[in-house]
Amino acid sequence: MPIKLILIRHGESDGNAQGIFSGFQDVDLTEKGIWQAKRLAYRLKELPVDVVYCSDLKRAQRTAEIIFKDRGIDIITNSKFREINFGAWEGYTFEEVMSKYGNGIEVKSWLENINVEVNIPQGESLVDLNNRVMTELNRILEEHKRADKDKTVGLVCHGGAIRVILCNALNIELKYMWNIEQYSTALNIINYYNKAFVTLINDTSHLEDWWENGLKTNTEKKKDE
User: Fold this and answer.
1) Active site residue 10
2) What is the pLDDT of residue 214?
3) Catalytic one of 10, 144, 158, 206
4) Which residue out of 31, 46, 83, 117 is catalytically annotated?
């Protein structure tokens, strides 16, 4: 049966705010990140969702809970949907990585030439990330395809993991994955039939001023009713 995948990046994290590499590093949401998740929760409140999966890292779990927990939807944590493991680069800014490791072949291959098979020191390659994420996603999709009705599945995870999923859905080479923007609480939608159909990418309209004005208008209407 067809599956609609609601693919969500977590809200702004402490790592994002500090501009550091935070792959497996377990950083939490900032106040802004919590606000972003609440805005997306309002946007999605009327959308029926059967089940939600999320990375087991705090920034993804917190985002998933803000959006879905009050709706009584099962939230299943899964370490396979973590961000790429930045290994020795974890906790450093881009400038610090270049200063500390810039002469290494890994930095040049990974950051400049986008060699998808090169491992970050003590971390993963893009191929590793792809294999980890897609093996688990395909297992989940296959499991839900056997259901006797259409399913809407939520997945709250990280920018790298989402880019990998979108590359596979769009048949784009992994070396181009960083060309796909993924802002905090970005909403992406993929419909899976016999193949994938991407219907939305990196949508953050829920964070724009016009959306806030709509929220205020709806709240005022309810008070008058």
Assistant:
1) yes
2) 57
3) 10
4) 83
